[in-house]
Amino acid sequence: MKKAFFLFFLFCGFTITVQAQQNLTDAQLELIELSLDKSYELKAANYELSLDSLEYKSIRQNFIPTLEFDALYGYGSTQIITNIPTVQLPITGINLFEGDKKFNTNGNVLNANLTAKALLFSGLQVNYGAKASNQKIRAMHYLLFKERAEIIKDVISTFDKIELLKQSKHVLESGLRRITKEKERVLKAISNGLATPYERDKIRAAELNIAAKKTEINGNLGLLYLKLSMLTGVDVFSLKAYMFELKPWLVEISRESFIDRPEVKALNASIKGYDYKLKMNKHLFLPKIQAFANLSYANLFNAELNTPYNSLIGNEPINLELNKFQFFPTYFLGVGMKWEIFSGLKHTTEIGKTSIEKSMAEDKKADVLEKLKLFAKKTQVDFEVKNEQLLYKEQEKQVALNTLNSAVKQYKAGLISITERLEAETDYQDVTFNYYELITQQRMAALELLISTGSLQVQNLNQ
User: How many other CB atoms are found less than 10 A from the CB of residue 460?
Assistant: First the structure.
């Protein structure tokens, strides 16, 4: 605790109080929000989350009653051939059923059913299945925070690289202005015979070196603006109007630790999900009970049966007709049960498979916790080291500036050579570059520190 406050007071040169410090401007926060909205990875993850949410709802909906209606109309026609032992009538002597007899029949059939079904007891499959699905959704939700943190870090890193190059360009331009003044004095001295072309050429070489560095910086800046445009969806021209700041990042003391990281929370949810899945598989032996009700309508109409016989009186063909044969209303109510008594060891296999998956998740959690503990310690040490290095680097930068000012005066007085003067210029540039590079590293170390506790979210960036 004391060390954290000590580090804060070491940075009093950059800020007066913690509340006055803003690690990011409002414009930068806006760009971060735009990048989160644009991210295709986040959109894909949210779609997956939506699909899992629909799956969870579909599991719970198994208890919602269903209502089905089906109807059937058909026309049928067939020929029936019979061969029955002959029977002779005792009075008339007529033989009945002699040989093969053919009957022709046809008719219309209409059938309709309205059926309601309701699952009363799923053998606890729905209850545990829904809980397992809910834990899967929670795990994916936690991983979204991890994905968001990576995007935030990438965007801020791009901010810092842009500002680092702009600061480097400013240092080079300042150095070029100083060298240009020296060049003017050298050219005047050469014309008066007080200097040699060697000094002019050394200055020219320094100018060309600065020009080459500026060309490289401009190229890299263009690429970084393109990347930032890709991340945020804002055009490059508009992005160049934004002002970014490169200053040490202040981190508020957090009560959270590495066990609060979204990866750990996701693993905890996954393990709970396997617990419910295991309970679901262990209860597969329970019966499933369903209630149902059916209302049906059936009608056989306009049916005919043509026989090979004739009437005794009038010798007319004997044909039968049916206008309607109807069943309505027909009710059927009941409760059904399905009980899988022996599944061929399928249930045992599922239980064993789920137990192994749970053990794998538990081992993965133990491994992750050990690595995250080490990572959390490493990020804390890195952040503290970068803070202390910044203090020394700031002093080194001031010393290099004093040395440069002294070299300018001494060269003007003829006390040192042009080589020594340019070396002082180069040394100052290198020290300044390293100083701004170290600020960039310190800011990245701060972001890693926030990631190590799962705190790298938009609302925590200026805390």
Answer: 17
Q: How far is CA 153 from CA 146, 166, 443, in A?
A: 11, 20, 10
pLDDT digits (tens, 9 = 90+) for 131-175: 999 999 999 999 999 999 999 999 999 999 999 999 999 999 999
Domains of the chain, CATH where assigned = 26-63+122-287+339-460 (1.20.1600.10), 68-121+288-338 (no CATH)
Which pTM value belongs to this model?
A: 0.80
Q: What are the backbone dihedrals phi and psi of residue 378, each rounded to the nearest 5 degrees, phi first?
A: -65, -45
- pLDDT (tens digit per residue) in 94-136: 676 677 778 889 999 999 999 999 999 988 888 999 999 999 9
Whole-Å CA distances, 237 to 21, 155, 165, 337: 29, 17, 17, 70
- For residue 248, CA distances in Å to 114, 327, 437 come to 73, 87, 11
CA separation for the pair 403, 401 (Å, rounded)? 5
Distance CA 61, CA 172 (A): 68
Cα angle 379-383-384, degrees, rounded to a multiple of 5: 120
Tokens standing for residue 461: 């960036």
